[in-house]
Amino acid sequence: MRPLKVPGAWTTSPPSFQDDRGSFHEWFRGEDLRAVTGRPFHLAQGNCSVSRRGVVRGIHYADVPPGQAKYVTCVRGAVRDVVVDLRTGSPTFGVWDAVRLDADNRRAVFLSEGLGHGFQALTDDATVVYLTTSGYDPSREHAVNPFDPRLGIAWDGDTPPVLSARDTAAPGLTAVEAAGLLPSFDACMNVPTGATRPLPPDPEESL
After folding, report:
1. Distance separating alpha carbons of residues 127 and 106, to the nearest angstrom
2. 61 flagged as catalytic
3. Is 142 part of the annotated catalytic residue set?
4. Which of 34-38, 65-69, 131-135, 203-207 is predicted least confidently?
5. Could you tell me if 78 and 185 are in contact, meaning their C-beta atoms sit under 8 angstroms apart?
6. Taking burial as the number of CB atoms within 10 A of a residue's CB, which of 43, 53, 117, 124 is the most buried?
7. Considering the entire predicted model, what is its pTM?
8. Which residue in 61, 130, 136, 142 is the catalytic one?
9. CB neighbour list of residue 202: distance below 8 Å, 6 or more residues apart
10. Which tens digits make up the pLDDT trace of 125-147?
11. How many whole angstroms separate alpha carbon 76 and alpha carbon 50?
């Protein structure tokens, strides 16, 4: 596992074993995640989304506490997966990073509580599955507009974006920050998940 530019987010490329029957790979290993991040991953919910090319989902985040960490991969097609630091007071507040996840590279992304997450479908039937440490609760789920100029996320521009009504109407980072809706860096660091052990970033795993 290698860290992204956003502290608290990592990416991993698990090995795949192939023979004449097909292939096998372990897309999630709790002990490996704990060894790198210094924290456990307490699974509460598993989700699967299927999107046509051009769909943008996000940027979504949850209140802290309790927060919601995620472990994300793409099992069909390809997506541009994006992580954003939305923690007020963080040294990297507003910084984002992107990783291509697809059915061939089998890469996965882990992001800690307080980080924003979104992705763009690069193919039709792009299928993303992700594990979360807390269940969905609409009362504590929020969104930041993925095309907010302040964030300046470099989405793929070859296909017109398709957004939900919620994401289209989502406020920008400045408005969400002014409304006091963002998690604080201190609160996220105090979530009882253990310390982290950073590794040097791998430029080949970021876009």
Report:
1. 12
2. no
3. no
4. 203-207
5. no
6. 117
7. 0.88
8. 130
9. 2, 11
10. 999 999 999 999 999 999 999 99
11. 9
